[in-house]
TrEMBL record:
<dbReference type="GO" id="GO:0009318">
    <property type="term" value="C:exodeoxyribonuclease VII complex"/>
</dbReference>
<dbReference type="InterPro" id="IPR037004">
    <property type="entry name" value="Exonuc_VII_ssu_sf"/>
</dbReference>
<keyword id="KW-0269">Exonuclease</keyword>
<comment type="similarity">
    <text>Belongs to the XseB family.</text>
</comment>
<keyword id="KW-0963">Cytoplasm</keyword>
<keyword id="KW-0540">Nuclease</keyword>
<dbReference type="Pfam" id="PF02609">
    <property type="entry name" value="Exonuc_VII_S"/>
</dbReference>
<comment type="function">
    <text>Bidirectionally degrades single-stranded DNA into large acid-insoluble oligonucleotides, which are then degraded further into small acid-soluble oligonucleotides.</text>
</comment>
<comment type="subunit">
    <text>Heterooligomer composed of large and small subunits.</text>
</comment>
<keyword id="KW-0378">Hydrolase</keyword>
<dbReference type="GO" id="GO:0008855">
    <property type="term" value="F:exodeoxyribonuclease VII activity"/>
</dbReference>
<dbReference type="GO" id="GO:0005829">
    <property type="term" value="C:cytosol"/>
</dbReference>
<protein>
    <recommendedName>
        <fullName>Exodeoxyribonuclease 7 small subunit</fullName>
        <ecNumber>3.1.11.6</ecNumber>
    </recommendedName>
</protein>
<dbReference type="InterPro" id="IPR003761">
    <property type="entry name" value="Exonuc_VII_S"/>
</dbReference>
<dbReference type="GO" id="GO:0006308">
    <property type="term" value="P:DNA catabolic process"/>
</dbReference>
């Protein structure tokens, strides 16, 4: 990855740019491979960010108070 994205949205935008460039039939093989590698790293980054966001979800308890969501709670 050229540089780490600042946030999820920036990573997603870069992924869209890479996807568009890889759809160009004139893209040299080396550039396509580099774009694919960067895209794979960005996908991992996005998945990690989504997992972190999921862990931070809040749920309402029976009293209407917000509590931190943890996957261990039932």
């Amino acid at each position: 990855m050229k540089k780490a994205p600042k946030n999820f949205e920036e990573a997603l935008k870069r992924l869209e740019t890479l996807t568009e460039s890889m759809q160009n039939a004139d893209l040299p093989l080396e550039d396509a491979l580099a774009a694919y590698q960067e895209g794979s790293q960005l996908v991992k980054y996005c998945r990690d960010k989504l997992a972190q966001a999921e862990q931070k979800l809040h749920i309402l308890d029976s009293d209407g108070l917000i509590q931190e969501y943890t996957p261990d709670e039932q």
